[in-house]
Amino acid sequence: MSMLKKNLSAGPGTVSEALGIHYSHSGLSLLGNKIWIEDNGIILKKKEIIVSKRIGVDYAGEDAQLPYRFVIDPSALDR
Fold first, then answer.
1. What was the pLDDT predicted at 19?
2. Measuring CA to CA, how many Å separate 26 from each of 11, 16, 29, 79?
3. Running DSSP on this structure, what letter comes out for residue 78?
4. d(Cα 74, Cα 79) in Å, to the nearest integer?
5. Contact criterion met (CB below 8 Å) for 76 and 70
6. Greatest CA separation found in the chain?
7. Which end of the chain lies in a sparser environment, N or C, as judged by fewer CB atoms within 10 Å?
8. Where in the chain are the domains?
9. pLDDT band at residue 5, thresholds of 50, 70 and 90?
10. pLDDT surpassing 80 at residue 58
């Protein structure tokens, strides 16, 4: 089994890296056959999702405080 980087999906760039999405995929439909959203039936409880403000976007003013960061609580992965 290969080791994953701890913060591989900590932000938009690393999420893209984790999913193998490249800038050349820009504009592709998420309903197509190259990149798609798939439902694997994973159900999380609301308390298992950590919500926090955006990071690294101080230039966005008050929008930088919006709760647009979502992380699965690591304890939820142990079940």
1. 84
2. 17, 11, 9, 35
3. G
4. 10
5. no
6. 43
7. N
8. 1-38, 41-79
9. low
10. yes
